[in-house]
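Let's practice the habit of predicting before peeking. Look at the sequence and jot down your guess about where helices and strands might fall. Then scroll down.
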Amino acid sequence: MSSYADRDGSIWMDGKLIPWREANVHILTHAMHYASSVFEGERAYGGKIFKSREHSERLKRSAQMIDFEIPYTVDEIEAAKVEVLAASGLKDAYVRAVAWRGAGEDMGVASARNPVRMAIAVWEWGAYYGDAKMKGAKLDISKWKRPSPETIPSHAKAAGLYMICTMSKHAAEAKGCSDAMMFDYRGYVAEATGANIFFVKDGEVHTPDPDCFLNGLTRQTVIGMLRDKQIKVHERHIMPEELEGFEQCWLTGTAAEVTPVGQIGDYNFDVGALTRDIAQSYEKLVRE
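Done guessing? Here is the structure:
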């Protein structure tokens, strides 16, 4: 596959479509130095972006959480996504919207005078974890922990919050794993590096309380599906020693969709009937 910097097509940037290779920023862009950037990952199925407006609304909220205002309304962001998706010619695609503080009068930690910029790109992206959808992903356990909400805006989808996720995933891949599970600052089970996590025991579902990490839109969707199926869902703090007693496990996220997990560290899980049912039900839902 070619570099993401060297592709045909168009990217929506600051209000207009421009050739893909020309979607560049200056080296002194504030976000590059100080992580003043937020983003959304979305998927289109059959030409329609799943939960598109909810993603646009969260993008705006994330920017506000890290102290800047995106200069486009939710309606304008929605129209831009429709425009760039149509220009791509793709029906099933990944959609990345990103907003950031650009280069301007400020080049220090403070950047209030710098312009806020925005771009939207669309590309083909298959299963995030490859063939793990069939046999179950293998996860490492990260040495890094999700921080306290007293130290970061933990509910913003902000680029800087993913630094330890990148480090964790690189370490996991070096061990032959697909991803890593992270604990939070208190030692509770939190999430994977870019996906929320669910467990099954005795026909009931357990998932960490997202009180210090992103409450994913796919996570919320799957919880709603489970409750519609009359399956009890416990949103709670989960201790590491509980992993041994869980029977099934899966991850959720826009990129991950619903991906079964077969192993976390030394703990093994079945790709069981409930996991398969939820994965299939989610696939059906997003294509309705």
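How did you do? The first strand starts at residue 10 and ends at 13.
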